[in-house]
Amino acid sequence: MNFDLSDEQRMLDDSLARLLADHADFETRRRLSSRAPGWSPELWAEFARLGLLALPFDEKQGGIGGGPVDTMLVMRQLGRALSAEPFLETCVLAPVLLSEDGGGVVTALRGDIMEGRAICTVAARQESADLVQAASTGGEWRLTGNASLVPWGGEADWLILPAETGKGLALFLIEGERAGVTRRGYPTQDGRRSAKITFKDAVAQRLAASDAGGLLDRARATALAAICAEAVGAMESCLEQTVEYLRTRQQFGTVIGKFQALQHQAADMVIALEQARSMAFFAAMNCEQADAALRERALSAAKVQINRSARSIGQAAIQLHGGIGMTMELAIGHYFKRLTMIELSFGDLDHHLDRLAAAGGLAA
Amino acid sequence: MNFDLSDEQRMLDDSLARLLADHADFETRRRLSSRAPGWSPELWAEFARLGLLALPFDEKQGGIGGGPVDTMLVMRQLGRALSAEPFLETCVLAPVLLSEDGGGVVTALRGDIMEGRAICTVAARQESADLVQAASTGGEWRLTGNASLVPWGGEADWLILPAETGKGLALFLIEGERAGVTRRGYPTQDGRRSAKITFKDAVAQRLAASDAGGLLDRARATALAAICAEAVGAMESCLEQTVEYLRTRQQFGTVIGKFQALQHQAADMVIALEQARSMAFFAAMNCEQADAALRERALSAAKVQINRSARSIGQAAIQLHGGIGMTMELAIGHYFKRLTMIELSFGDLDHHLDRLAAAGGLAA
Amino acid sequence: MDLSFTREEEAFRQNVRCFIQDNLPEATRRHMESFRSPTRDMIVAWSRILHARGWGAPRWPAEYGGPGWGPIQQYIFIEECQAAPAPDLLSFGVNMVGPVIYTFGSAEQKARYLPRISSMEDWWCQGFSEPGAGSDLASLKTRAVRNDDGWVIDGQKTWTTYGQYANMIFVLARTKPAAKKQEGISFFLIDMKTPGITLRPIQTIDGGCEVNEVFFDNVRIPGDALVGQEGKGWDYAKFLLGNERVGIARIGISKGRMRLIRDAASTCIRDGRPLIEHARFLDRFIGLEVELKALELTALRLLAAEASRGNSGTPDPASSVLKIKGAEIQQRTSELMLDIAGTAALPWPQGDEAIRALAPGPSWADAAPSLYFNLRKVSIYGGATEVQKNIIAKLILGL
Amino acid sequence: MDLSFTREEEAFRQNVRCFIQDNLPEATRRHMESFRSPTRDMIVAWSRILHARGWGAPRWPAEYGGPGWGPIQQYIFIEECQAAPAPDLLSFGVNMVGPVIYTFGSAEQKARYLPRISSMEDWWCQGFSEPGAGSDLASLKTRAVRNDDGWVIDGQKTWTTYGQYANMIFVLARTKPAAKKQEGISFFLIDMKTPGITLRPIQTIDGGCEVNEVFFDNVRIPGDALVGQEGKGWDYAKFLLGNERVGIARIGISKGRMRLIRDAASTCIRDGRPLIEHARFLDRFIGLEVELKALELTALRLLAAEASRGNSGTPDPASSVLKIKGAEIQQRTSELMLDIAGTAALPWPQGDEAIRALAPGPSWADAAPSLYFNLRKVSIYGGATEVQKNIIAKLILGL
Fold this sequence. Notes:
Chain A is built from 11 helices and 9 strands.
């Protein structure tokens, strides 16, 4: 066991941090979030130049072959910078779902993603109301149904989604602008965008996958670990902003960071952050675990801790900022909102507690 | 609605407070608790002189006819003084259970209780393992079975308990020293005493009761409200002792009560106490409520709050005292222990949350 | 000691309830039931309905146009309104500046302002906080300099709720710059249309623009804008804030919200069962019900104590308990709602019904996170939780 | 970065586990499993078993008789011992005074004491706290005055755990009364049989007498009782306490206790079902499991960081996180046990098996409240939670 970064990892981490510091300051971020697409295509191009977009793809497929630790590093930095770029969808979920398909379209798409030419999102919600039907006629698959709350669904070039074929679940790939696809995008609470997508006899390509459900679960697990790391980055930033505020804000003739009651609340934030950080590591350690039961248990435990820490750190950050923390003008509120939405993503607290309870606990 | 005491109540409250201040200081209390009976017969005699022991009995039966508010006042003072006198059993539970019986033995017992000559306890646990069997032969009722955790069971002159007659539950009265009764007393965690009692063909008197189960429930409700008030008294004292300690203990060159983090913990104790105080009132308001469902819901809500406040106040009191709070030499630890045992008495937190859940909530 | 409501009190409650049932506009009720803030028009319309009934200033003595109710009646009235749920009366008028005016104001100020407050002809807002004076209100910097026929105000206020709707503002300003912090502060009543006053809305994290910055640039006001004595403004402000602390616990609102939460959780199906039947949710719901019941009784105890000793003018420090716990409970109700909404809380339609229709979940789902974000303020404003704990430690415990 | 244990580390764990399984006396294991503190004899016997295997001082470097393990191995070893559950090695010897002696002591002190520590021939206890110097340890008053051939100690220590079993005590005493608080304190090694030392046991609220007051009345000790330099005692004490902070989180003990709690809750039937299947209990259990897993990884991260940068001698302030959270988790495990025991926790048999048999519930039921009461200490000793938060605020956050 060691927690040291390799030289490559350290370099990646540093370069990304610098890149984000240069291109993703809070004011830029705010301006971007006010209209579609909601992220910065320029920054995305920089991601491509940095090799970030090739990171999670297999070396055999022309990628860099990064593992969960690399994803964790990247997502943490994105979390720190409140990045809204669709990395999670395009470079964490999609690579797993595309991984078993060696066909021409997919190979081309992989290339496009790695070079920053294509954004690919995934409709991976587990709610049954969202299940799309797929019918095969004349060698063509056609999709009919609705997918709601698809992140960047209105803006992505490509969309991957599970659909029911009548003979079980399969994965499909479809272009965003395809005939029969209606996309209605809208803003979300955290300054990002989502969409409701309606399919009506829309021609789609079935992805090769020996076990579509299993592959989807693996993709979700990888994404869950990734979003835990994003949350840790956001929490780190919350803590830093709060400490900076405590160090500078004057009330009652002194900086408020001298008040012991506030110091202790900040100390509680440190503790919650350390616990969350540990469980983000735990998620990364376990998200590629072959034993699905062990994997899901570990990931649920991680999300439980992340959610609890996110809630307490987010709330404390606002409380310690006082009124100014309630305004859209300061970054801290945006972090709080993003953390709240991360809590709800890939299963909320109840979902993961239920999963652990059904398994009889973490150590069962 | 008004929360003012009547003149009589104010007088009772004051006299009792003075009496306890004179007779029930902590050192006396500690000495008493080290051996049976565990309480002070002298103080009990003073209770009788004060009219305390006649308080809960009906005026028709020679008592004073006090209500739940009077009981609340008394129990709060007993809680403040950490009194171990068996008032709850003899003067809260027993009067209800005896209330429907006008026979000679019971009339005499009531008189003896009011004049301080008899201690009467009640085996009122709801656990089925404790159900005693009653058999009627030749006009006599004989009890067989075990009763565990009977408060002051080894010392009381009389014992009331429910038993199964074969035709339903009935209430029985029996002398402690009766043939066929084996009593094995032992100390409890809060410096009081309890007993396991074994009955073997022990002759007992059946108490008149139109509905023994209902009467028992009413007695338990009255006792639950009473113990809530005792808890409030104990919590008040915990807070006072803690504040006094914070005002006098010096560390880092100042009294520790100047540290804001400790001040805020003390403020949290105030909040928990006020909430508990309110729910002790709520329990008193509702313990004689005729609608059993409403009554039980209200009492469960009260006990939930009392338990939560008791736990947080007790723990905070020890924490704020530091090491010295961990010792038997200081009163505070004894209060903490008593509060912990009150949490477990007449239904713990789980029991009352379950009851509220089964009823669909407090307002359902 | 009588711990239940008297027959008269119960009859009073029934009377109030019936009036609200018959007179609260249905659209307003429905809007409030979907966990949204009332609009300006809803507040004005409802205030005028109450005023027509003589209930436009429920806490005021009869001589100033109030109904002359005691604290228990006032409490019942407010609880019934909040549970309806009806919009709150505008606190800045009836609960804040009104009592200051009738307690410390001149005869002329009383005659001019009080009727217009209870009839909601004037919309008042508050000019207390400043960018550098939040919890530490006494460090405020806005200046009022005397000139020939009045005062000239310069400075900046912030967190002025509903400033955009207001035609009047009450302001704390420093009239003696050299005096010690709390001294030399005076209390002014100012017409918002006076030249030199400008407003800048502040968008908060729930997406709303309830609050504003207010700038005073060489604002000339008449001499009779001053309330009471020059330099006594701090005392009047303390009186005002103390008055508000029982109401600020928002117990009636929390009770009404708990009822709506129960309804929502009864219709929201998770894993084949209504959410309200899930043990974890029910436990949290019940835990909150118990705390809220306890808080309600704590408030009643405080009111009863006030009723039997008479209002001393200075707030009972125990009201800090109400403020802290009331804030905590309000925040926890919004967390329950967020949990009911689940992922349906993600979209941010900002009032666009077409977008709302695209999202899964109940129609109020987007209101849940907004409320959750918005209610972070309740442990910050009106004396932050930390400040209230300082008050308890100092004034109740003597630490 | 490699976030799993290496094959070598897993093999090491297996090796340790087998040794414990084969060598831990069955009666000791059973005693520990009923949530009771080990007796003196159990501690001594088990320490000697480990010592015979060469593991009597698991954290020490090889040159002083330790096994020369790295931090991860040390962690695995301690975790396996605590999970067994085996008695802890006596911390005052191996983890506290031992490292002080081999880091700051003279060659002669090392030779004399270290072997007797790892073999448990000496039982060490701690003389740090005083009645007026708890959290504020630096205000201690015990004096050491130099005389011809040594020192004379006068004063009073308290909270001396297991003082009744000890033959040696390490003591902080003031050698320069005029110096500033932290200065002028020195560190001494003292034989408990020296005339003038008396002990008074302190009974704690769990009923135990683990701790003692120790009185020093004109106690004459030799010159070589001083460790390192005169006046540097405060630095040595900080080194000692910092060393202890990772271990003080008692993660292995909490893990072992969680296993026992799971077993207990699986056999305890409530309303016809094992308690572990009740949603509320299971939620609390799982919540604690998650926190404990997180804390374990936090500890490993700290150890790994230490392993890769080398022990600097000064404790990482992040170890305060471990101390706070470790204490909280220990306390919460005991609350879970209390809840399992329910009313069966009421009797207080104080070791009397006949009384224990009279009470309902499992045989460990009376140990539950004792443990609950006893573990209140863990957020007080070794730097109270409040002091640790001060450290975090100051040293990590720079506030």
